[in-house]
Write a structure and sequence with these properties.
single chain, 293 residues, alpha/beta, 39% helix, globular, binds zinc ion
């Protein structure tokens, strides 16, 4: 059976509290031999490390998600430096920029006050930090805080020799521009890649990579399949981003690492290669990128 890795999973989320051991057992039965639990805050990163200590197949990435930037402490570096020493911490992440829900977009919408937003399709979008400032000032403050914590985390990556799991939404140019000065020291994987082939090439140009989720199986995922087709076989990895983005035929349900199998089948079709070739290429890329894997 071809082996695959789930390089981006949120295994610390409460979604798995009821049947965690079964989720991991199903993954291993499906050939998903390694999983990386991605941190979204310091607490979430600690939880990912605890899971990695308990389960041999689980590894951890530690970092603070841009959507929760306003809740981040002023300096993330000391805590992250400590966590990076752990033998199963394989990357800094997920980090980056997310302009999808800015404070200005929150006003006058159906749910007034952005602290009350419910999770939407894809990632959590909780933008917090209410004030009576003009929205343009709030937007600027929110973007600045995202950039500040992104920068701090890139610095820790450079210091510790770890690569980064990058989250960006509606912020491609700014994210690439902030990562670029670190090229040669730090590589990023632009996770849940949904951009076109031209943008994929700009990511590869600075030595970074992309990874693809269950979106490749969606009926309306042709643009992502086109990007997969254009991406060299040794320049991408596979991931679920679970509990989000379950592939067909599980779309809309809770996603879990076992479903990398369905993702790999679609990607192999699009790349016109065998599952064995895809397994060898994506696992090698992942082991070179996440060196402690
Ligand atoms: Zn994620």
């Amino acid at each position: 059976m071809p082996i695959f890795y789930d390089t981006h999973a949120h295994l610390d989320y409460p979604d798995y509290a009821g049947d965690f051991a079964e989720v991991i057992a199903r993954a291993q039965a499906a050939g998903i031999s390694k999983m990386i639990s991605i941190g979204t805050s310091l607490d979430s990163s600690e939880r990912a490390i605890r899971l990695a200590e308990k389960f041999p197949a689980i590894y951890a990435a530690v970092g603070w998600h841009p959507s929760d930037a306003m809740k981040a402490p002023s300096d993330l570096r000391p805590a992250l430096r400590g966590m990076c020493k752990h033998p199963k911490v394989v990357a800094i992440g997920e980090i980056g920029l997310d302009y999808h829900k800015l404070p200005s977009g929150m006003h006058g919408g159906p749910s007034p006050g952005f602290a009350t937003l419910s999770p939407s399709d894809g990632e959590r979008d909780g933008v917090r930090g209410i004030s009576s400032m003009p929205t343009s000032t709030e937007d600027a403050r929110y973007k600045q805080k995202q950039a500040d914590i992104f920068q701090q985390q890139l610095e820790v990556a450079a210091e510790t020799g770890l690569n980064c799991v990058i989250h960006q939404r509606d912020a491609f140019d700014d994210t690439l521009a902030q990562l670029k000065p670190f090229a040669g020291k730090v590589r990023g994987v632009f996770h849940c890649f949904g951009e076109n082939a031209d943008r994929m090439r700009r990511v590869l140009e600075i030595g970074s990579l992309v990874s693809f989720t269950g979106i490749v199986t969606f009926k309306n995922g042709q643009n992502v399949r086109d990007t997969v087709a254009a991406t060299p076989l040794d320049k991408f990895m596979l991931e679920t981003d679970c509990p989000y983005l379950a592939p067909v035929p599980y779309r809309g349900k809770r996603c879990e690492p076992a479903y990398v199998k369905e993702i790999s089948e679609t990607v192999a079709q699009v790349k016109n290669c065998s599952l064995e070739e895809l397994s060898a290429a994506t696992c090698k890329t992942a082991r070179e990128f996440f060196r402690k894997l």
